[in-house]
Design a protein that fits this description.
It is built from nine helices and nine strands. By secondary structure, it is an alpha/beta fold.
Length: about 200
């Protein structure tokens, strides 16, 4: 997977989701283009990068392609624990992340610099002050951090997460985070998404 470009990885993750609800025995790159908007040439290139054999006379055998993708991403996503860092409006909205239900990802802790928030807010998982991050993250073997703090806290808390052994960060802040090569960052946000769309047109 490390030799597959990031945009292709994102498309393949979405393709896995698409195929989970696709009932036909085969699917063509043209059909995937109709359903997703990706060009058929891009689809063929992405699937070829997987170096798997699931081709049919016309297209790909749906079940085999789906199984390959599920196995590929399943190996990466097995029982991964996550934490939320920052319990402001965005962090609070993620306390009930229903889209993670029935997935290998599980939020097991939340952190905030305000002890009051950790005591007042209700959640299905424990909430802690950020002073306990290192202890809790290591005890719980948490792999991913979801960063939703204010801009001035973003880099210091990123460095704290890295120091705790976090492998990846979902960045909801407007900041460009500085991390070592061993840590991955996914930048998420309305402005980022709109600017990406704008330069793609």
């Amino acid at each position: 997977m490390n030799d597959i470009p990031e945009p292709a990885k994102r498309r393949l993750v979405l393709l896995e989701r698409l195929l989970s609800g696709y009932d036909e025995k085969t699917i063509t790159s043209q059909k995937i283009e109709q359903l997703t908007g990706w060009s058929s040439a891009v689809v063929r290139r992405d699937i070829a990068a997987l170096k798997i054999h699931c081709g049919a006379t016309n297209g790909y055998r749906t079940e085999e392609l789906r199984n390959h993708l599920e196995k590929l991403f399943g190996e990466k996503k097995e029982s991964l624990k996550c934490c939320i860092v920052g319990l402001g409006r965005m962090g609070q909205a993620l306390l009930d992340a229903s889209e993670l239900y029935d997935t290998p990802f599980k939020i097991v802790a939340g952190f905030d610099s305000s002890v009051n928030k950790t005591e007042v807010l209700s959640s299905s998982f424990p909430l802690h002050p950020t002073t306990l991050m290192k202890k809790i993250i290591r005890e719980e073997s948490i792999s991913y951090g979801i960063l939703t703090v204010d801009a001035e806290e973003a880099q210091p808390l990123t460095e704290a997460l890295v120091d705790c052994g976090i492998k990846g960060i979902v960045n909801y802040t407007p900041c460009v985070l500085s991390v070592p090569p061993s840590v991955s960052v996914e930048n998420v946000g309305l402005l980022t998404a709109l600017e990406t769309l704008a330069i793609s047109l």
